[in-house]
Design a protein that fits this description.
216 residues, alpha/beta, 5-stranded parallel sheet, two-stranded antiparallel ribbon, NAD(P)-bd_dom_sf, CoA-binding domain-containing protein
């Protein structure tokens, strides 16, 4: 897909708020190569006190942090350990962005659909495609049993309870941050449709330095 549109950016005030409140940053495409930009950005974020969760196809460890082979593997572990994801920082080619954002949204969509136990969440995560595969929303929703369901006003609203159980999958305040030089209009539209905060063609390290230096 050719991107003729301008990159999507958040306001400085919103980025400042995100960076001030964030604790955990998932880094998709973080490389163990010390010469890569992703490695330098991750090192910087660690120095600033953020918790880094690397996503790297070969797994292992990067910067003394366990590297997960996929987002769903990382999210499963985060759910099991009650860790909230605040930012997903992406270092992947522009053409890969729609499938990655789709996967993020599919994981996040679980938070308001039905009340699930932690174990059922982990089982469902196993059925989701990896970030390298297309997401079939209807197939996954049908598997979960809510694709044709209609809310019953006489039943108690369990969305708050479900959202608490699924905190690592709650995308209401999640920011997707796409590295400098990368952008994709389709990915931006997907993020907008799911009410995700979305910043692209932007280096989180450089923006941190620029925004907080302005306060000095």
């Amino acid at each position: 897909m050719i991107n003729n549109s301008k990159a999507v950016h958040l306001s400085d005030n919103k980025k400042r708020e995100i960076l001030q409140n964030a604790k955990t940053i998932v880094m998709v495409g973080l490389s163990p190569n010390v010469d890569k930009a992703s490695y330098h950005v991750a090192s910087f974020l660690l120095e600033k006190g953020y918790n880094i969760i690397p996503i790297y196809p070969k797994g292992g460890e990067i910067l003394s942090k366990k590297a997960y082979t996929s987002l769903k593997e990382a999210f499963k572990d985060m759910c099991a350990n009650n860790i909230q994801c605040d930012i997903i920082d992406i270092f992947r080619k522009s053409e890969a962005l729609p499938s990655i954002v789709n996967e993020i949204c599919m994981l996040g969509k679980l938070d308001s659909k039905q009340n699930l136990t932690n174990q059922s969440i982990l089982n469902i995560a196993d059925t989701l495609p990896s970030q390298n595969s297309p997401v079939n929303h209807k197939k996954v929703e049908k598997k979960l049993g809510f694709i044709t369901s209609t809310p019953n006003p006489t039943q108690p609203n369990k969305s708050t309870e479900a959202a608490e159980i699924l905190r690592p999958f709650n995308i209401n305040n999640l920011c997707v941050w796409v590295q400098l030089g990368l952008h994709n209009s389709e990915a931006a539209l997907i993020a907008k449709h799911h009410n995700l905060l979305y910043e692209e063609d932007s280096c989180i390290k450089l923006e941190y330095l620029r925004i907080f230096d302005k306060q000095c």
